[in-house]
Amino acid sequence: MSDAWWCEHAWVDGRVADGVLVTTTDGVIDAVEVGRPPTGTCLQGLVIPGLANAHSHAFHRALRAHTQRGGGSFWTWREAMYRIADRLTPQSYLALARAVYTEMASAGITAVGEFHYLHHGPGGVLYADPNEMGRALISAAADAGVRLTLLDTCYLTAGPAGEPLDGPQLRFGDGDADRWAQRADALRSAAEDEPHVLVGAAVHSVRAVPAEQLARVASWAQAYDAPLHVHSSEQVAEVEQCLAAYGCTPTALLREHGVLGSRTTAVHATHLTAQDIADMRATSTGTCFCPTTERDLGDGIGPAPALLDGPGLFSLGTDSHAMIDLLEEARAVELDERLAGRRRGTIPAARLLDAATFDGQQALGWTTAGRLEPGARADLVAVDLASVRTAGGGATAENVVFAASAADVTDVVVDGRTVVTDRHHRLDAGRALAEIIGEMWS
Ligand SMILES: [Zn+2]
Question: Which domains does the chain have, with CATH numbers?
């Protein structure tokens, strides 16, 4: 099926072009022509490629505004997160994730990387299909109209000294990496006929996967040429525990066991040594920063300039969904850097826009997404330049990255299918979230 979209302005070849006609066949861009008169479906504002949310735990959305009361740390926040995790069923997870992914679609996110570790029933009892929770996420993404990279997460222990899982954590565990791989194989088969899904792998962290099991997860991802993600160096305590257990940093441990590489994304990468950064660069390992979560949890500020320089990808994620706004994640990388370094303008808006789109899509394995060019997936996201936030800022990357918010996304096209029109998605995510989350906290 052929379609044509005319964009008042569009982000093409790293700059803003005017009067851009994008023609597609079966969800793939045939041509991008600049300086053309309006025809086909007209998109006002500045059209950017699809935003990629490279790090999500869908169920954490239920914590928003509930865990902002009182003080504490990442570790006290985690207790509240475990309480929610313990209440979810495949049915309630489908309903919650469908609404969360709809919130993402409305924010211009066309692909999400779901770091999925809530595999089993309470007490660790397997469902009739051990991938029932994963299949709920696949259905949720289809209903919301976004692509899903389901990063099936290996989670085996409660700490780097091999402490056994306990309480709500029992739902996360597969016993050992071989059994994790068997289940992940079955999930890949289940997702084979789902064009909106890629199945990748994840190591939860060096706390949750013992060193001798890391290579099994890495080899699984390598065998399928699949994305491999890992939480790494988010917390000072995590680094200290790793040093105590193994005598090296998480990054060094991951490198030693073959986890780092160009298909790998280290999520957070907040507390890195100079040697860690050298290891990341030497292996072309990607990084995913999640600034709104990192600020919400009081994690710290990672070394963005050193990592943005490449050669690895630099992607962004909304992680715990304290908010779902990739533009806020993008600007936060530069604004956090200003606070930390007391200097303005280290990272250009164009680089941040690329991180939020192209780098993120690549980190999730959608290799032909993230740019408006022939042969690319037809993901189009129109950003309003006439709202109270953006009016007067002009058709520039700076206006989109530093002034616009998710609320300024008016139209979203994913693989050539219109998912959001004039800020309207066919599903009422607000109502669904109120119902499901209200029930979970009752
Ligand atoms: Zn995470």
Answer: 2-49+370-423 (2.30.40.10), 51-363 (3.20.20.140)
